[in-house]
Design brief:
- This protein is of the alpha+beta class.
- The chain folds into 2 domains: about 30-125, no CATH class; about 125-210, Nuclear Transport Factor 2, Chain: A (Roll), CATH 3.10.450.
- It has helices at about 1-20, 35-45, 130-155, and strands at about 30, 55-60, 65-75, 75-80, 85-95, 100-110, 125, 165-175, 180-185, 190-200, 200-210.
- Strands 1, 2, 3, 4, 5, 6, 7, 8, 9, 10 and 11 form an 11-stranded mixed β-sheet that branches.
- The longest helix has 23 residues, at about 130-155.
- The protein is globular.
């Protein structure tokens, strides 16, 4: 009986250590005291009085190190109905332990007067677009994606993932002025769909899978 209790205690300790130190295979972990203090000092210097957002630690793409980041959203702004926009400020710790600040714009559809809390599935604006164009593209993105799957079938880099489930992540413009819809699949692959506007019609024109 004591042996069983000993094994249970050891298992519980291993689970606790994995959760707090980021065992191999874990995607996130809690911030250390040093990481938290570094972020607090940075915020005190650059944005004194700003409520401290929670610090998040995620594994880098190479799986060898952890990336510390946090984000703050400004109050949402109502655009042309039913579109909302928010400015998001992101803080990321660099390799030399300094902190980098980036700002981005995100939009989403919300069918009430109050935009409420920004949802997880927002769409980032890569380029300035007219409000009515943002709304048209988001509302038509499902149909445009289905049409683009035919283009993906003829593209060597896109064909292997053409049947995956995709989520719209970004809106922008190409170098020649056409619209670009940026998608991410359920396995992390990405595809950019170039959309050609023609009067009231939007046409999936080209695809690129970086």
């Amino acid at each position: 009986m004591r042996y069983v209790v000993f094994l249970a205690a050891m298992a519980a300790q291993a689970i606790t250590m994995a959760a707090t130190t980021g065992a191999p295979g874990a995607d996130t972990r809690a911030a250390t005291l040093a990481e938290q203090r570094s972020f607090e000092q940075f915020m005190q210097r650059t944005a004194p009085g700003t409520p401290l957002p929670p610090l998040r630690l995620e594994r880098a793409p190479d799986g060898k190190k952890w990336i510390a980041s946090a984000s703050i959203d400004a109050p949402p702004v109502r655009l042309v109905l039913p579109l909302c926009r928010v400015t998001r400020t992101r803080y990321t710790q660099q390799a030399d332990d300094s902190w980098r600040t980036d700002s981005s714009q995100h939009v989403w559809i919300h069918h009430t007067t109050n935009c409420g809390t920004p949802p997880a599935a927002m769409v980032e604006l890569r380029s300035p677009l007219a409000e009515i164009d943002m709304l048209r593209l988001i509302q038509a993105q499902g149909e445009l994606l289905q049409r683009a799957r035919l283009l993906m079938a003829g593209n060597t880099s896109c064909a292997p993932t053409r049947s995956r489930n995709f989520q719209l992540r970004a809106l922008g413009r190409s170098a020649d002025g056409m619209f670009v819809l940026g998608y991410e699949s359920d396995i992390g692959s990405k595809v950019d769909i170039t959309v050609r506007p023609s009067r009231a019609e939007l046409t999936a024109w080209n695809v690129n899978c970086p």
